[in-house]
Structures are given as structure tokens and as C-alpha cells.
Amino acid sequence: MELTPGVHGLPLRVSMDDREAMFNPTAVETPQGLLLIDVCLPGEVGVLEAALADEGLSLDDAWGVLVTHQDLDHAGCLATVVDRTDAVVFAHEVEAPYLEGETELVKSTEERPMAIEPTTVDVRLTGGETFATAAGPMEVVPTPGHSPGHVSAYFPDAELLVSADALTVVDGELVGPRPEVTQDLDTARESAATLADRDVAETFCFHGGRVAAGTERIEEIAAER
């Protein structure tokens, strides 16, 4: 789905833990080619490729991947995508050790071990970086809480926020981070307040997809305690 000219939501329907799940990475057209914001689970590159094809796009045109954070549903097939495309990997410097295999994933436990194939982070972000895109500048916004180095992407010209897991859509309503899968809920709410400082008319969430809600609703979420 086209979120704004040059920015495409990629709804992916996959099987996860014996259930069907829907994930929503993003493809952004840039002067260098496609920049993917997140990918998908291990072994699901084909699903990602099909979603790109539905938008008239090709995985082979991906020159970069912005990984919002380390979770399997966002970075699980990152190594495969990089092997296929030689894409440049961007991630916050705090997330880099997890993606490169130096540090165990935050949500990995003895009862449910988790791991992804280590992948080099070519460019370590600190926040505030701007990418040139077909939709105008895209700002990388640090939104920690869900994970230590989580980031979101903001397109000011389109008043569009790609929130990854900083926000969620449930039954058509924009809501805050899910407490049961958020590492630091207080920090996540502070991150929502950071997002509320921007002019947002529409939000695209990795879980729940597109919603015509923005700054006013995000302010309400940030105020929730």
C-alpha cells in the first residue's frame, strides 16, 4: 500500500508460533534505490519479496535496510536480505551488538531462546540522521523502551510516522507500546512523548498497520500512566 508517494507499506502474512500473524515493514524510494525499514522473520524473504512485487518493486533494488530494532520479526531474515542484495545496514548504535551477535537478544530466555544470524551494522546511528527520499527528508527518531535502541522514522513533508513497535494499532485505534513485550515501559512512554513533538497526521505501525491518527492521539498515549 502506498502511504505517501515514494513510501510503501508492506503487509506480510506469516505463520508464527502455530498462528497466523501480520507484520508491516516499509519500503522507501530513495535516489540510491529502495531503503527497507525492517524485514521479517527468518526464512520469510519470499513473503517480503512478494509484498514488494505487489507494489511494483523488487528486492534486488534494495540498497539499504534500516533496522528499527533487534526482534526476530523485524530482523530475522536480515542476513539473507544482505546476502541477496549487498544492502547497507543501518541501526542505532545500541542495537548493533545484538544484531552482530556479540550480545544475546534482549527477549531471549532459557525457556524460549532466540537468535538471529549475525549481520554487520555498516552505519551505527545515534538519532537525528536524515535520509533523502522520494517523499522528502526522513528523520531517524530514537524511541527506546520497546528495546534499548529502538528507532522510528518520520517524514515531515508528508506528516507521516513509521513507528515500528513504539506504537501499535489495535482494532483500528492507535495505542501505546504493548506492556508484555516492552523492555522498559516508562522509557517507551517517554519516547511516545518525543514522537508527539512532531506534526503527525498518519501513523504506520509494524503491528496493526496504517491509521489516520497522529499528534493529538500520540499526546494522549504519552500522558497515560
UniProtKB/TrEMBL annotation:
Q: Give any Pfam family that matches.
A: Lactamase_B
- Residues annotated as domain Metallo-beta-lactamase: 22-207
Superkingdom of the source species: Archaea
Q: Which SMART domains match?
A: Lactamase_B
Output the PANTHER family linked to this UniProt entry. METALLO-BETA-LACTAMASE DOMAIN-CONTAINING, METALLO-BETA-LACTAMASE SUPERFAMILY PROTEIN
Q: What is this protein called?
A: Beta-lactamase domain-containing protein
* Organism field: Halorubrum coriense DSM 10284
